[in-house]
Amino acid sequence: MTAESDGVQRARRRRGNGTVDGFDGRRLSLARRLRGMPRTMLAARTSVTAASITQFERGTRPSDAVLAELALALGMPAEFFRPGRPIEQVPASAAHFRSLRATPAASRDQALAFAEIALAVVDVLEQYVDLPAVTDIVDPVHEEPTPDEIVATAARTRARLGVDPGPLPHSVRLLEAHGVVVLRLPPEIDTKVDAFSTEAGHRPLVLLSPAKDDRARSRFDAAHELGHLVMHHDVEPGSKITERQADQFASEFLAPTAELEPDLPRAVEWDALLHAKTKWGVSLAALVYRAHSIGIWSEHAYRRANQYLRDQGYPEPGALGPPESPYMLGAAINLLTEAGRSTSELARVSGLTAEQFHDVISAGTETNS
Predict the structure, then answer these.
(1) Between vectors from CA 145 to CA 140 and to CA 147, what angle results, nearest 5°?
(2) Total count of domains within the chain
(3) Is the domain of 94 the same as that of 70?
(4) Minimal CB count within 10 Å: which of 235, 300, 309, 353?
(5) For the CA atoms of the chain, what is the radius of gyration?
């Protein structure tokens, strides 16, 4: 008689163990993506195949023994995979990534899993704290808006958000004040991910890259993602066209041309440009681009200025200080702590681990900005 293969023997043992009474396949998928682990890698660390993991994520229940293996491989308590509070899904088709083509799919999946965890944390916080109401900022553009139409959209958005004429004091705080959840991506997320935004959940969500240790860049990224939330509702993400539109929106939102132009020198004068950088909170590279795009500088002056900036390297001259930092979630937790509620209690309510809950709160807490 032919001896049974190892695979058949393992299958027999799994069947003998029985299946888990309560199991949520979505949570298995979430934990796996949050660890940045493809199904093939998870399978290699357990006694099941990648195809079996796919079936588990679709709702097939594993045995208790297999669940214990999966939990161990993912560094999660087995209780995490039991049915609990629903966790909103954030599909890739509903997220605008700054550098979509340069970002590996697994890295995007990991970042999207963090976004789902973040929405779950926010959902719990809203049971106890009144977070700012979400302002209706949607102002869709047609497929090929002119530059003037995007300028007008940015102006309407400033007015809708109550922005006074002149420089914007704090772009991240402004978004939070109007109900947008802003977070820094945690350091374990691939730095190729960059910033991204989504409306897939019950609140708009903007995630900023922690790798950009520059205030001007963080301000521009926040304004760029705001541009997507305003203009690209239900628009397929990832095209160079929509990214350029969001860039133009960000430029106008942070520094409207009519207000910025008097501060731009008519020739390449770096002292004047540094003064404009400090006043408006935008980079020298952005100011050089604006001076050329609105017709103040010639092509020759534009090229010469860019060559100077390339020679200077990064960071460019005139540092503005640390990146802008989110505030809202940290402030909410402080209120709840003062009221006697612990983060461990809130994590239990959310159905998340204490580590996951802490990571989200840390990502939404003010640092040094």
Answers:
(1) 120
(2) 2
(3) no
(4) 300
(5) 24
